[in-house]
Design brief:
Number of domains of chain A: 1
Strand content of chain B: 35-45%
Number of strands of chain A: 7
Strand content of chain A: over 45%
Helix content of chain A: under 10%
Shape of chain B: globular
Radius of gyration of chain A: 16 Å
Structural class of chain A: mainly beta
CATH architecture of the largest domain in chain B: Sandwich
Order of helices and strands of chain B: HHHHEEEEEEEEE
Low-confidence stretches of chain A: none
Strand order of the largest sheet of chain A: 4-3-6-7
Helix content of chain B: 10-25%
Structural class of chain B: alpha+beta
Number of domains of chain B: 2
CATH architecture of chain A: Sandwich
Largest sheet of chain A: 4 strands, antiparallel
Mean pLDDT of chain A: 92
Number of helices of chain A: 0
Radius of gyration of chain B: 17 Å
CATH class of the largest domain in chain B: Mainly Beta
Largest interface: A-B, 35 and 39 residues
Distance between the termini of chain A: 35 Å
Mean pLDDT of chain B: 81
Oligomer: heterodimer
Number of strands of chain B: 9
């Protein structure tokens, strides 16, 4: 499973800019093993969820066309303080999480 | 799901399979021919219709992507929608689809007023030169669509 999500949360122009990156090869299921000729089964992160203080603000349904090492950047409203929680779930149901705090 | 896998397997080697693959395509069924193994404007539109319902008005969506992508394996794309993102008026969902990828669907976003603005950036794989289409469903139920062409030098969909 993927590992080491990287999350950057910074205030910008009255908003909170959030950038996330997670290493994952996002195997499309379209490629063939060059030795055996067998299709390499699909194995991607298909779901991303971002919550702020427990409330979901954004989720993404990813398909095989999302590039390797999925990157997402978006903007949250600038709340005084709180915690952003992030979760990535792959085709096998494994979930990797990360979190980031914003302080007043 | 398994049908999709078979489909994509076929199109990944569509040249090779054009002759021999008729049997395989028959297994796939669903009226596929070698020609439309890749998504087409029609299948992409059909997918969007399924997700947001047909219709919708052009506009309000801005797609930012490079004019030419030399490497289709990772193409930056930013979608933004003209919306105040207030509790009363916000973008509920955005769907991005590709007209020339093995599968039309790229990524879908479920959004909320917790977002400061309706702008999201990500990176996608694109198989060839094609149109990217976006559809946004607003909180009042209205649908807006947009599209943009991108030239792809080297496809990034494997196979």
């Amino acid at each position: 499973m993927a590992k080491k999500p990287r999350v950057k949360v910074s205030r910008k122009g009255g908003l909170v800019e959030i950038k996330t990156l997670i290493s994952h090869k996002m195997e499309t299921g379209l490629r063939k093993d060059s030795k055996t000729g067998e299709l390499i089964p699909r194995m991607i992160i298909n779901k991303f969820v971002c919550k702020f203080n427990g409330e979901e603000i954004l989720s993404a349904d990813m398909h095989s066309a999302v590039a390797a090492n999925p990157y997402l950047a978006f903007y949250a409203k600038d709340a005084s303080s709180g915690t952003f929680d992030f979760a990535w779930t792959d085709d096998k149901g494994n979930t990797v999480t990360a979190s980031a705090d914003v302080k007043a | 799901m398994s049908e999709k896998h078979i489909t994509t397997a076929v199109l990944g080697r569509r040249q090779v399979l054009k002759g021999a693959g008729l049997g395989a395509l028959a297994v796939v069924g669903a009226g596929l021919s070698a020609k439309d193994a890749f998504a087409t404007p029609e299948t992409a539109a059909a997918y969007l219709d399924k997700m947001v319902g047909s219709g919708g008005s052009e506009g309000k969506i801005n797609l930012k992507l490079p004019e030419i992508a030399e490497n289709g394996a990772t193409v930056p794309i930013t979608v933004s929608v003209d919306s105040p993102m207030s509790a009363d008026s916000y973008v509920k969902t955005i769907h991005l689809v590709a007209e020339g990828n093995p599968n039309p669907e790229l990524i879908s976003f479920n959004m909320s007023p917790g977002l400061g603005k309706a702008e999201i950036s990500t990176r996608v794989r694109l198989g060839k030169t094609q149109f990217i289409r976006a559809a946004a469903v607003m909180s009042d139920g209205s649908v807006h669509t947009g599209s943009k062409e991108i030239k792809v030098t080297i496809g990034g969909c494997g196979g």
